[in-house]
Design brief:
Largest sheet: 13 strands, antiparallel
Low-confidence stretches: 1-12, 20-32
Structural class: mainly beta
Helix content: 10-25%
Mean pLDDT: 80
Radius of gyration: 18 Å
Order of helices and strands: HEEEHEEEEHEEEEEE
Oligomer: single chain
Shape: globular
Number of domains: 1
């Protein structure tokens, strides 16, 4: 099928959200609480993108970043380059609680676009409100879709907690509500049973389930389809939960994200 630039851009924006949510914390860096890693994406076997993950987790707070840029054919379609940054609170026996989220990106015809969200407690809920630097041109979704949802980068903290939870459901399932500033969706996770007890990896099936903001309801990135999108995630089955690969279909062909290497510092991975 022909590839439309707007829908291609929308797929890559959804991929950026998914990458942020699907990559749990990594091990080994210059400092125990500072982690920098590089991933490579290929689409139908062709190089398609580069992803840099930078994590800083303290005892009570986190500061996480994900940088993604397309290369090769996807770069011709979308020209996407952007960085998402989230900060929030960490507490024992509680899920990660975001305080603010910013995504700055260039995409096709739009440059210096900025998604800015602040998470504001109100009437017993936490509402995602637009910050003063937001450049979105369409109105936000109704408040009910922005209530008690997390940003895409904070979602990875929720995934980590779900995979590590000692009292998770017997079927290994979990759900994370996500709002990216334009779209509201759920990340549904299911930890698959091992084929043998000595297997050193953990396979997780993720699904993006559209809730609101798709089919042009509020998105400025074309008309992303609202069909559920399945994702296969493979991580090491140890305390690190190191991601090994992530596979998702894009335009009926597999897009694969694979771990490349760690970096001693963000500067060492800049590029």
């Amino acid at each position: 099928m022909p590839i439309d630039r707007s829908t291609g851009a929308a797929h890559w924006c959804r991929l950026g959200c998914l990458l942020a949510a699907a990559l749990p914390p990594l091990a080994a860096s210059a400092r125990a609480d500072d982690i920098v890693a590089v991933y490579a994406a290929s689409w139908a076997g062709i190089p398609a993108g580069e992803i840099h993950i930078r994590l800083h987790d303290g005892t009570a707070a986190y500061h996480d970043e994900i940088e993604i840029r397309t290369i090769g054919l996807p770069a011709l379609i979308t020209r996407l380059r952007g960085t998402g940054i989230a900060e929030g609170r960490l507490a024992a026996d509680r899920p990660a609680e975001p305080s603010h989220y910013d995504a700055i990106y260039d995409l096709w015809k739009r440059r210096n676009s900025h998604i800015s969200m602040r998470f504001v407690p109100r009437n017993g809920a936490v509402i995602a409100e637009r910050g003063p630097d937001d450049t979105s041109r369409k109105p936000p979704l109704a408040e009910k879709f922005r209530s008690n949802a997390v940003d895409p980068v904070t979602a990875f903290e929720r995934v980590r907690a779900a995979l590590r939870a000692p009292r998770r459901p017997a079927d290994g399932s979990f759900a994370i509500p996500v709002y990216d500033g334009a779209r509201r969706f759920d990340i549904l996770g299911h930890i698959l049973p091992k084929k043998n007890a000595g297997e050193g990896t953990l396979r997780v099936e993720l699904t993006l389930r559209a809730i609101a903001g798709f089919k042009g309801e509020s998105s400025e990135d074309g008309d992303p389809d609202d069909a559920p999108r399945k994702v296969d995630l493979l991580v090491t089955d140890d305390a690190r939960l190191m991601p090994l690969s992530l596979t998702v279909p894009v335009f009926y062909m597999p897009l694969v994200v694979q771990f490349v290497h760690y970096c001693a510092s963000p500067k060492a991975c800049s590029g």
